[in-house]
């Protein structure tokens, strides 16, 4: 019985029907269409599928989707992207400050900064080290020897308790890119020089600080006679340690580009007299 009912239902779907349009006055058949239930279902099914597909395409690939409640508009999406970038910048800034505080705590405790300890390879044994001279090392040695030929051994103490009483040795030869300016809180002189240029002490004195900071990179500071202090920042390498006694013209560092506040390879040189910054260009020819 079920199969007979099924066949009967299918045959009904396939039965043809005639849809005619007549002239109301002459009863003449103007237009007709032969249809079956199956044809009607197929036509309406195909039309519904095309309609749904068209709506989906319009919503997915046109700005019409912004009119849907709950969907973010262009301004909201742009704001989301900007907030994500700001959060990423804040995370990086916090990470830098955390590294700075960790490094500062290590220095205060008399320990090596974590960044420096990570670079140390403790697995190398001293017996396995082979000392060889490279071309760069030979050039550096020659340059230092030539510079130290003119070391000042005279007494550099002032005679009139002013900066003019000193006889300075240029810390590095180059071009001044930024001069001393108290108004803009620039307490030193920026000198651009050749790469890997040797930085020398301007006067005889004692190294009171040789360290690394996040903003100024490798920094070395020398205390001289007569309440005079010289500071050398943004070096790529320090050649002296705290407590070392240096002569005027003696090599103390290598010009570099270290620290966040640098804009290129140069030396930031500061000169302090009686606790006050002074313009080094008035007393030193770079």
Question: How does this structure look, described?
Answer:
The chain has helices at about 1-15, 35-60, 75-110, 115-120, 135-150; strands at about 15-20, 30-35, 175-180, 190, 200, 205-215, 215-225, 230-240, 245, 250-255, 265-275, 275-280. The chain has about 290 residues and is of the alpha+beta class. It folds into 3 domains: about 1-65, no CATH class; about 75-120, no CATH class; about 135-280, Distorted Sandwich (Glucose Permease (Domain IIA)). The strands form 2 sheets. Strands 3, 4, 5, 6, 7, 8, 9, 10, 11 and 12 form a 10-stranded antiparallel beta sheet that branches. A two-stranded antiparallel sheet has the order 1-2. Strand 6 and strand 7 (about 215-225) form a beta hairpin. The radius of gyration is 42 Å and the shape is rod-shaped. The N and C termini lie far apart (about 110 Å).
Radius of gyration: 42 Å
- Low-pLDDT stretches are 153-160
Number of domains: 3
Q: What's the number of extended β-strand segments?
A: 12
Helix content: 25-40%
What letter string, H or E per element, gives the SSE order? HEEHHHHEEEEEEEEEE
Distance between the termini: 112 Å
| CATH topology (level 3) name of the largest domain | Glucose Permease (Domain IIA)
- Give the helix tally: 5
Class of secondary structure makeup: alpha+beta
Main beta-sheet strand count, sense and barrel state: 10 strands, antiparallel
* Fourth-tier CATH superfamily name of the largest domain: Glucose Permease (Domain IIA)
Beta-strand fraction estimate: 25-35%
Please tell me what the overall shape is.
Answer: rod-shaped
CATH architecture of the largest domain: Distorted Sandwich
CATH class of the largest domain: Mainly Beta
On the 0 to 100 scale, the average pLDDT is: 81
Assembly of the depicted chains? single chain
Transmembrane segments: 40-61
Pfam families: Peptidase_M23
Organism: Williamwhitmania taraxaci
Protein name: Peptidase family M23
């Amino acid at each position: 019985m079920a199969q007979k009912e099924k066949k009967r239902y299918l045959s009904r779907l396939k039965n043809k029907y005639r849809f005619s349009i007549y002239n109301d006055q002459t009863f003449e058949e103007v237009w007709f269409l032969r249809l079956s239930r199956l044809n009607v279902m197929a036509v309406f099914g195909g039309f519904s599928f095309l309609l749904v597909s068209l709506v989906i395409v319009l919503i997915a690939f046109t700005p019409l989707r912004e009119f849907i409640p709950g969907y973010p508009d262009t301004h909201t999406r742009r704001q989301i992207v900007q907030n994500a970038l700001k959060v990423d910048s804040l995370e990086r800034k916090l990470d830098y400050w955390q590294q700075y505080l960790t490094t500062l705590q290590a220095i205060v405790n008399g320990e090596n900064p974590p960044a420096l300890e990570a670079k140390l390879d403790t697995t190398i044994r001293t017996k396995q080290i082979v000392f060889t001279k490279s071309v760069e090392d030979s050039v550096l040695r020659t340059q230092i020897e030539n510079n130290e030929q003119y070391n000042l051994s005279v007494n550099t103490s002032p005679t009139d308790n002013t900066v003019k009483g000193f006889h300075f040795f240029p810390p590095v030869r180059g071009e001044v890119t930024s001069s001393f300016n108290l108004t803009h809180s620039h307490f030193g002189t920026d000198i651009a020089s050749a790469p890997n240029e040797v930085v020398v002490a301007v006067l005889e004195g004692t190294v009171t600080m040789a360290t690394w900071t996040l903003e100024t990179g490798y920094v070395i500071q020398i205390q001289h006679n007569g309440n005079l202090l010289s500071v050398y920042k943004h070096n790529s390498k320090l050649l002296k340690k705290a407590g070392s006694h240096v002569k005027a013209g003696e090599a103390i560092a290598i010009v570099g580009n270290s620290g966040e506040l640098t804009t290129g390879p140069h030396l930031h040189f500061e000169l302090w007299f009686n606790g006050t910054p002074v313009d080094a260009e008035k007393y030193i020819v770079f």
